Amino acid sequence: MKQTLHSKTPPRNRLAKVLPEQWRQVLLQQGAPRRKYTAVCSVTLGDGRTIDEMIVEEGWIIALDRNGLGGTFEQRIDFDPRAITDLQVKQVI
After folding, report:
1. 84, 87, 66: which is closest to 75 by C-alpha?
2. Does residue 3 register a pLDDT over 60?
3. Measuring CA to CA, which residue among 32, 55, 41 is closest to residue 85?
4. Cα–Cα distance between 73 and 47 in angstroms, integer?
5. pTM of the model
6. In Å, how far are 5, 9, 18, 60, 68 from 21, measured between CA atoms?
7. What is the DSSP annotation of 13-67?
8. How far apart are CA 89 and CA 56, in angstroms?
9. What are phi and psi of 22, to 5 degrees?
10. How far is the CA of 14 from the CAs of 23, 26, 31, 70, 83, in angstroms?
11. Which of 27, 53, 55, 67 fits 63 for a cystine, CB–CB 3.0-4.6 Å?
C-alpha cells in the first residue's frame, strides 16, 4: 500500500511518519491551516500511553518532544500513528 505524502517538501526528520487523515481533519477543525504549519499536540495511544508534545509539520509526525528541533534531524517515532485514540492541539505555529 502506497502512502500519500501530505506536503511537497520532505519532512525535516527522515524517520517521520505520516499522520492519518482522520487526525489531519481534527487539526483543521481545531484551527491549523491546510498548508505550511507546525502543531504541538497531546495524544493518547491505544495502549494507554500519553505523549504530551508531539510535533506535527504539514501532515508529518516529526518529533515527540521539542528537544533538538533545529534544522534537519533524526528522531525515531516509536509508535504506529494508527494507534492514536485522542488528539488535542496545544499550539499551532
Report:
1. 66
2. no
3. 41
4. 27
5. 0.84
6. 11, 18, 9, 11, 27
7. BTT-EEPPHHHHHHHHHTT--SSS-EEEEEEEETTS-EEEEEEEETTEEEESSST
8. 10
9. -60, -35
10. 21, 24, 26, 14, 21
11. 55
Residue in this structure with the C-alpha cell 499522520, named with its chain if needed: 19
pLDDT, tens digit (0-9, with 9 covering 90-100), for 32-90:
898 889 999 999 999 999 999 999 999 999 999 988 787 878 889 999 999 999 999 99
- Amino acid identity at 42: S
**5-34 pLDDT, tens digit each:** 556 677 788 899 999 999 999 999 988 898
Give the separation between CA 57 and CA 38, rounded to whole angstroms: 4
Q: How many residues does the chain have?
A: 93
